[in-house]
User: Fold this.
Amino acid sequence: MSAPGRTLSTAADTSPAPTTAVVVVDGAGLVRGWSEGAARLLGRPVPEALGRHLSDVLPPVEGEVAEGAAYRRGAPGPPVPPGSGQAWEGRRTVRRPDGRRLDLEIEVLPVQDSGDPPMRLVLAAEATGSWWSSAGRSLLEGITVAAPVGMAMFDTGLRVVWVNDAMETLSGIARERFLGRRLGDVLPDLDVEDTEAEIRRVLETGRPSTGREYFGHVLSEPDQVTYSTSCFRLEKDGGEPLGACYIVLDTTENHRARQRLALLNEARKRLGGTLDVLRTAQALADAAVPGLADHATVDLLDSVLRGEEPPPGPAAVTATATLRCAGHRAVREDPAPPIPPGEPCDYAPASPGARALVEGTPTLTPELDPADPQGAAGDPARSAYLRDLGTHSLMIVPVRAHGTVLGVATLGRWQPKGPFRADDLVLAEELAGHAAVCIDNARRYTHEHTAALTLQRSLLPRELPGQNAVDAAYRYLPADAEAGVGGDWFDVIPLSGARVALVVGDVVGHGIHAAATMGRLRAAVQTLAGIDLAPDEVLAHLDDMVGRIAEEGDDASGVTGATCLYAVYDPVGRDCTLARAGHPAPALVTPTGAAELVDLPSGPPLGLGGLPFESTRIQVPEGSVLALYTDGLIQSHCLDACQGLELLLDALAAHRAPLDELCDAAVTRLSANRPGDDAALLLARTRALGDRHVVTWDIGKDPAAVAPARARAARQLAAWGLEDLSFTTELVVSELVTNAIRYASEPIRLRMIRDRTLICEVSDGSSTSPHLRHARTTDEGGRGLFLIARFAQRWGARYAGDGKTIWSEQPLEATGSEADALGGLDAFADLDAFGDLTDLDGTGSPGRRANPAEPGTT
Assistant:
């Protein structure tokens, strides 16, 4: 036999027994097939053996005769039994060409073909010593009887002419059904076209085929089996194909092991890709179907879905614990599951599901009992669902991590395949165990994410404070669960003089540390805004604070810096002063519809330390829209910052629309691809306070100017219809102007603003700070600021490069009559300390002058 014969000899030679010769002989006794094993055992290469008579290649030793059931002792001739259809086995001593003597155990098998006499398959192995009586015979019998390797021989018409016993066992089909037929006639599950095409290729080319797999069923077994096949060609003298030898090996267990390994690998990929509890549970169901089961349901404790710590150990879990369906997958969608994902579910106390929860033990039911109304599911609705599917086998395994049961997984088979076996249960437990670790990690993350999100929401403004400088609206998009809670924040802070501060910031990093740092920075900004610092000074203080936070923290916090944009809008001057620390520049849309970014020095991010910040003042026409945002809004993994800015400006083009609609339009355009970072957007449409709401007077540095200042304030209140505020306002104006004249320098200016409150401001050229103190009864002064604090809603001082401004705010509606106000002065023993206020009308009692001197008006 030519090269194809090596396939057979290799299989034989791997046996612990000696080499086996496989020889194919035609009806005339001529050798038509000679394996490599025959060449090694008998000492003749393939070319020398093909076409010669068997007696020439197996010459008997002189004086020796073959022994066997079909031969008489001393009978001459080769060991080929006479008569068609008879097999023969026995012993023969032959001599190799090199002269060495061989004792052979020989078995001759008839091969069905059209010849008369038929072809034969001769199997020979050396028999020496004690091996002859046991191992030698076992080797030869193993090829045809006990070996797990099935063998079949085909003629050139692809008809089966011989099969061994193993082929009968592997296929579950009797030998007689094979002989004279093609494979497709007896193996309907076989891919006949593909298999016969491969055999035909071997016959035509002489190149063997090895390691091909196909799937089928043994009649006595419901499970699918896997076969690995090889094929080599048998040749005549001239090299013409005589037929083919087909070898089949049952590789079902190896195939199942590969499938289990592949399923576990795929499951690990699915389960490790998310930190969401529900998605992880669904990934477990997806991994089990269809590789292991035809349908799978995963139920988890409700506390696990909420991110809470479950009770430790399975014994602490009660059968009445609340569960929810967290994942479901089936090969077909109809019928629908009785409990959709997300809905609560429970198990009967004695059901396998309850035992899995309470005891943590799995249950394998290879064959369901259709007569049991409850079934292995332990619930009528579940049992009805299983019956409707045609489920015949069921497994219920606990989803357990670190000794704690988190839920239950139910897997079933309904297709025409075999029942679950013990190794399937092992695989299901491995899947559930790996999924449980991932679910527990997701639960822990959910707990931390929920805590961080709660902290973040508590630190962000729930609603914007009331003020008249701007109309404002905002949108805040938290980061997704995978990215974690970020540190973005925004704020609208009313300032003195009817101004407003607009703030947007972003802490680098994610998690609870970022949220906590954001809260500290937001509180700091509100404090700094309360003392009316300029934007660049606010950022300088924040820079120092972030540096201290970084020094106090550790690498685990993940917080390395922050960015911030701080803007102050003045509705009186209609200007805006801005400064930023590494933050994206704001967008400005004017009433004409022109949209552009504000040209603003970027400044270093907060936390670098030592670098200066710069403020910029711009004029903002009334009705303009200022857009402040964080970088999470304009960029993501699939959107760069330039594209995001273009989309934002396009969305703001409809600047006359209500601000809420503008916010929604911007968010819709920019959040189509869900951001992996927090995103904040703050829109402010500017308003202006004109001459009807603001009056200003210049005050000379002369005590006589106090009375005219009070008179002007009184007249202006009458013009605004606020006469009820006259007494307290005159008192406040008198004290503010008197202090400026006594202790400050020129220029001195009085300004009154009618906004949501009545604002009185006195500016001077001094930078000295006013101090509120308690005066003694014998002091002639020192009670002015105390009075202002008593009658004003708020008061304070702010500083500029050319001096300071002391201001007070009063509610527009008087809180009591002037008599009540005067009664409040009884606590002060000596009103003489208030100068002009002690005798406002010359009658010896406090009151309003009848005809005050008014040197001039604005």
Remarks:
- Residues 503 and 536 are 13 Å apart (CA to CA).
- The chain has 24 helices and 32 strands.
- The radius of gyration is 49 Å.
- The first strand starts at residue 20 and ends at 25.
